[in-house]
């Protein structure tokens, strides 16, 4: 009787060698680093096992009387050892945060906090540096012991990052105009009208020029081509013209709906004579200056697009992966990433340079939200109550890092679906695009 063996060769260097038949043996050379999870991706190990199993089947076909109980038992034991890692793999915890990436993220946060401390020393920045130093030591111990909880470390990393972002420079006038942090009430609609394009255009955005000290100007933008794309924005120089849908001018952002600078999704905003929006079919933010006709763009690293993380509380509103908001002297972008497990990420943009200056990571799952808006540096999220009522239920304060899950601020609407909701710091109103209807509300702190 032939003797068949499964050989597991322990090597020092990391290698990936598939199982192969040599003489009368099935040989699989597996690096010892496999067991020091997560040194090698779970899927890779599965492939090794699959190759060995295929060779086993070939041996069985050669001689059906040959039994390989030891070999089969060994494979079974290997699978058992790997089973406990399958949850991490399938739920994206390991894929999104392995040790090397964790180290790089911690280093980036540490250096940012160190620079902030050098520029403006305080007890808060000093305490942050101590915590970050301890976190870096913990990661070093992970390398030695291979014992850690990814979800716990992920939460710790997110909180440290948010605190560092808050320590970074934000203009003093931004804080002074927002002394009352959290909104207390929303009025009944003070404006209600259909958009001027067509009732069938159920997705889009509208509002007022959001830069302080700017002239009064209203705009509306409706998505066509499957409620997904657009290339023009309609401008009104007075509230009276807007309400009468007359004396408007259609500004062309791109030459066609499929141009690389065309608009995708309903997350559009107008700030300082510039339209900010998601660029056509990419995880990028575009800006278009109406006067100069100049365009810029910036990458949103890791942002989910093409309905990966849309607003989806009651019924999914397609093409809402990226939401632009304007507030005081900043433009904000709200989105979600796999790295943050589909939870909302808030980034603050410099509207002139169009670069990301701050990024906070929340624990609010984006698909559990109807819509969001920014007010005085606070992210607010809404959820569906019924066809004619919405409710603000959540807030995240970028200045303090505080998350509030106990809000209950109801407000009216005329239809179920919300395509866009944005706050205007000039008149302190909320503007909502509600299944083709344009509504506005007064807000109170």
Automatic annotation (TrEMBL):
Main location: secreted
GO biological process terms held by the UniProt record: signal transduction
Organism lineage: Eukaryota, Metazoa, Chordata, Craniata, Vertebrata
Listed PROSITE patterns: OLF (PS51132)
InterPro entries (alphabetical): Olfac-like_dom, Olfactomedin-like_domain
Keyword annotations from UniProtKB, A to Z: Coiled coil, Secreted
Gene: LOC107714069
Record's protein name: Olfactomedin-4-like
Keyword Iron: no
Short name of one Pfam family: OLF
